[in-house]
Design brief:
There is one protein chain. This protein has helices at residues 3-22, 46-53, 184-189, 248-255, 368-373, 434-461; strands at 33-42, 60-64, 68-70, 74-85, 90-96, 98-105, 111-125, 128-138, 145-156, 172-182, 199-209, 239-244, 262-266, 270-271, 276-278, 282-286, 291-295, 299-304, 308-320, 323-332, 335-346, 356-366, 383-392. By secondary structure, it is an alpha+beta fold.
Length: 466
């Protein structure tokens, strides 16, 4: 290589190194942040729901994994997990829960139409989005059952929404009414009932984003506990909670087109999407008799048109001889009936494990008093939502977590116009402020001048080639 060529290579190398030191490396400063809670609302396809429950299919749907209904035709999936990168707009989040559709009951008790959709996941990058789901379905005609994980079920139209956001201030990613279109893979998983390109119900989601992780600071080792509080010998409850959704169809009636109402929680009650949690359990547990007597905090009030005004408060649960009863103070209008036995359920075993006594999703039946409390809307013996009970006997026992619906959960089934994470003001794709761009441009000019100066100086020192 000639001396002049070597000088050129050296100059280019120096220029590149200096330019690289000044310009930020794409994504080097970015840190994908964790999605830690939220919900996704989607009706799959409202006409499909109508077909399932209509006079032809004569079927139904049931919810799994803590999924809930919102309004008249949407399903709510909960506990979002994933990641969001505000610098690029890349977003990926999975949600828990599922819905099981059945229809066309056959003589052997099975159903010709049998499909479960669960664990929806939304992935967005490069201006496009896809909805993935787990699907178990029975093929139309053949009856062959297939189970597929994370099928790219639908494409999502973002409509020009800029997913980029300020990494320091964007704490929630909210997307409303994204149009969804069935993919070819989705059509196959849909058991052949719809073709690729079919419009599905729009998708709305809200996902909480954790702040950037701060650099870890040195911490002192935790001091050992002088004395660990063990299970109370007398069986006194340390804490506890009852989870009960009353009845899915009742909640749908309240928020639906007829009652056009709502519910409000009070006294510490919590909304778990498909259920209400009544916390702060107090009472006793008899290990020998496998008996429980607990009282819980919280209230829920249902209001709506046509005189709907029903409140449940001071919930209590008793279990003896394998049978449980859930009671509450019931207020209908201005009349209150205290300690009303609303539902009964089976609790075969009340053995403690890890400091907890639990009854998980026990099917419940409405009592005669409960039927009266609901104004005759349901008959005695009608199936109500399952009852879950967890009481802590040990101070260190941890109660089961509620589904995570994220911040500001809403029972509205009609989200407003599409809103994305806070947009970057500098225009699509830049990710840099105007001042930063100007500064970099000025720096590049200086670098070019410096590199040229180096070349000139080296040329002065070098003899002519050849």
């Amino acid at each position: 290589m000639s001396r002049r060529a070597r000088i050129r290579v050296l100059a280019v190398t120096l220029f590149t190194a200096l330019l690289g030191a000044l310009l930020p490396v794409a994504g080097a400063h970015a840190q994908a942040r964790t999605v830690q809670g939220g919900r996704l609302d989607w009706g799959v396809k409202s006409s499909f729901q109508s077909y399932i429950t209509g006079p032809i299919a004569k079927g139904s749907y049931s919810l799994t994994g803590g999924a809930a209904t919102v309004g008249a035709s949407q399903f709510r999936f909960h506990s979002a997990t994933g990641s969001y990168d505000g610098s690029t707009g890349a977003f990926a989040s999975s949600f828990s829960g599922g819905v099981h559709f059945v229809g066309h009951k056959q003589s052997d008790g099975s159903h010709e139409l049998d499909m479960t959709i669960s664990r929806p996941t939304v992935r967005i990058s490069g201006g496009g989005g896809t909805l993935y789901v787990d699907v178990v379905s029975k093929a139309k005609g053949t009856g062959a059952v297939t189970s597929s994980r994370q099928v790219p079920f639908a494409t999502l139209a973002l409509g020009g929404i800029d997913m980029k956001g300020d990494e320091n201030t964007t704490n929630t990613v909210t997307l409303n009414n994204l149009p969804a279109t069935l993919t070819s893979a989705g059509a196959k998983s849909f058991a052949g009932y719809y073709t690729a390109g079919t419009a599905l119900d729009p998708v709305s989601l809200s996902a909480d984003v954790a702040p950037k992780k701060a650099a870890p600071s040195p911490t002192k080792p935790a001091e050992p506990k002088a004395k660990k509080e063990k299970e109370d010998a007398a069986g006194k409850l340390r804490d506890g909670a009852v989870d009960w959704g009353v009845r899915r169809t009742f909640r749908e009636y309240v928020t639906g087109d007829i009652a056009q109402g709502e519910w409000k929680l009070g006294a510490g009650a919590q909304d778990g999407g498909a259920l209400f949690r009544f916390p702060e359990g107090a009472g006793t547990y008899d290990k020998k008799k496998q008996a429980l007597d607990g009282e819980f905090a919280g209230s829920v009030r249902f209001t709506g048109k046509h005189g709907l005004d029903l409140s449940l408060a001071h919930v209590s649960v008793t279990v003896a001889d394998g049978k449980g009863t859930l009671r509450a103070d019931v207020t209908s209008g201005k009349k209150t009936t205290k300690d009303t036995p609303l539902v009964t359920f089976t609790a075969k075993s009340l053995a403690a494990k890890d400091g907890l006594v639990r009854v998980d999703e026990a099917p419940s039946e409405l009592t005669a008093a409960g039927a009266k409390a609901f104004g005759g809307m349901y008959r005695a013996g009608a199936a109500m939502d399952p009852v879950s009970v967890a009481v802590a006997l040990d101070a260190d026992a941890v109660l089961p977590a509620l589904p995570d619906l994220g911040n500001s959960p809403s029972a509205s089934a009609s989200p407003e116009a599409a809103v994305a994470a806070e947009p970057v003001a500098d225009g699509p794709g830049s990710g840099l402020s105007g001042g930063a761009v100007a500064g970099i441009a000025g720096g590049v000019v200086l670098l070019v001048a410096a590199a040229a100066l180096v070349v000139v100086r080296m040329r002065k020192r070098a003899p002519a080639d050849g």
